[in-house]
């Protein structure tokens, strides 16, 4: 009992320390505001240089649809179950064709009765944003209610799974699969980087999974390939999101850009929101290095 109390106390203190107010970087804020001027849609941006503890928050506390970035909270749910001994990364699972779901990903093309392990499900969910494995992982994690409880424990009050989650139908109708704010998602990735989600070991493993992105045409394309990053994108017709933590030579920084109600609903590199994400990423890399 004493050990359990001590672990909760340490978690509370670490979160309290994490929550120390960062100073606003006025110069960078001005440059970002100029960059997003004229964007045809709603945009929220949060940037935090961890070493300097300076931030920029432009609508960073507004709620946006997560699109596929909901897969980060699902990842946390999976590792919570692993930590408790209820799941193992090497455990074998059976894919059935009845699980097939469209959109992004590879598992929808697997043959019926293919045997896979949990590690493959997690890797496909993160790297290829695979929808089949993401829905599967959400169920394995105990569903949206269990995942949302974990988000609450991390003091993330707006980050929630909505799809197939009891009591969240109105939120699902408004935001889709999940919802969050740019700041909360940047904070979640930062907590993972700092080893404060589930456990140090689980955080390290999650961080490794988030460092292998197939979809690297947006913000990642502006960061040298030799620099370690952890990231996730999310996309719908009128939504383009990305969160990236950069292990930069002069100190880690994290940024997230979320957009919604975008006029440009095209798919491809010329999409206005995707182009804006690349410009923001380049601005931040040049500014900090």
TrEMBL record:
One of its GO terms (molecular function) is beta-lactamase activity. Its EC number is 3.5.2.6. GO terms for biological process: beta-lactam antibiotic catabolic process; response to antibiotic. SUPFAM superfamilies: beta-lactamase/transpeptidase-like (SSF56601). Residues 1-22 form the signal peptide. Pfam families: Beta-lactamase2. Gene3D superfamilies: DD-peptidase/beta-lactamase superfamily. It catalyses: a beta-lactam + H2O = a substituted beta-amino acid. Keywords: Hydrolase, Signal. Residues 44-259 form the Beta-lactamase class A catalytic domain. InterPro entries: Beta-lactam/transpept-like, Beta-lactam_cat, Beta-lactam_class-A. PANTHER family: BETA-LACTAMASE, BETA-LACTAMASE-TYPE TRANSPEPTIDASE FOLD CONTAINING PROTEIN. Belongs to the class-A beta-lactamase family. This is beta-lactamase.
